[in-house]
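We now fix the convention by which a protein and its fold are recorded. These numbers are not coordinates but entries in a learned vocabulary of local backbone shapes. A record is reproduced here so that you can trace the correspondence yourselves:
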Amino acid sequence: MDSLEDLRAGKLAGAQRLKLACGLTEFPREIFQLADTLEVLDLSGNRLSSLPDELPRLQRLRILFCSDNDFTELPEVLGRCPQLEMVGFKANRIATVSGGALPAQLRWFILTDNRIDTLPDEIGRCPRLQKLMLAGNRLRTLPAGLADCRRLELLRISANHLETLPDWLLTMPRLGWLAFGGNPFCTGLEDAALAHDPIATLDWADLQAGEQLGEGASGVIQRALLRGEPPQAVAVKRFKGAVTSDGLPHSEMAACVHAGAHPNLVPALGKLADGADGAGGLVMGLIPPAFRNLAGPPSMASCTRDVYAEGTRFTPQQALSIAGGVASVATHLHARGLMHGDLYGHNILHDGEGRVLLGDFGAASFYRREDAALAAALERIELRAFGCLLEELAERCDPTPALRAGLGALVSACLNERPSSRPSFAAVEHLLADCARQLPA
């Protein structure tokens, strides 16, 4: 965190990054002293409601965060910033987004948790757009112009007022990560899952809380003992009860409950009623300590692709086992009318021997399996995400020439920019099994 005092004293001269969170109500003019060098500006957590018309003077500015402020409209001046490619205005009070406010170089656009009911058709004039975060707004439709954003890979439209998904969305050539839970056309399915799925309803009094294991956007996970004979060590996720970048905790809980049992899922043992803070929770099996994340989440540079630790390598057997486990659990979920929505290495745990567990259902979405065309289209979208994962695994192992050719063909099929031409997850399972049989014993 930088200080306004250091900025004013000239101590930050030449800085490429600047982060100020000190109750600002006006844009500090001293920031223009960094016009020749500043690339990343983070003004989140202040009380700003406007930006100066001179903002394009920051000629190298690529990334701008203004989350948790008091903006009621997206500033028009953003559209005149020549290098701006990542814009974040999460958790403001934005109701108006005009076409003129959209930077031409936009790649990553975050408008989560605002009051937007309409997006401009001019968004289609952002050909580089890859990642669009719109959860927690008031959208009733999506602009037809968005169909022209043919590089769009990740879309979050959960917790809006959408009555359906537009047909053109299901045919976008590179879309692989889609979340739409918490909209009117699927909330009934979520409610039914929580009301009728065969999972125990537990009370917070049934648990003896232990240390915190982790924290994510939607909740806090801690170790606990489930009282009984004998007591059982478990993990408890206490939901925060707020809109996240992916959607609503209610949708996540419903998906975890409805996912059912599978060897590559962390078992849900019970759902917890709302506590004193109004947030519910979920009791899950405790993950063995040998498991660790397959990858790290995307960086600002990689945008939609995961970041792997330097030197990460897999044997062909490990890579095929990981890919086969993920394909198997994806087949299982889609058979139950669930789209995971966040099929990424950073949401996959592995034990180093090829065994995997798929986690984080924060972006999961329900759909009606009886709508065969919709079900097939959503599965093919998720196949694109799987293709990215398979490509990352293949790049990090040393397969035989025959296996390399087989994996390359499968990656190409999953990444086909004509979604209807992609295979199903069940077909992918069989193809991976054929690849595994080619490995030496």
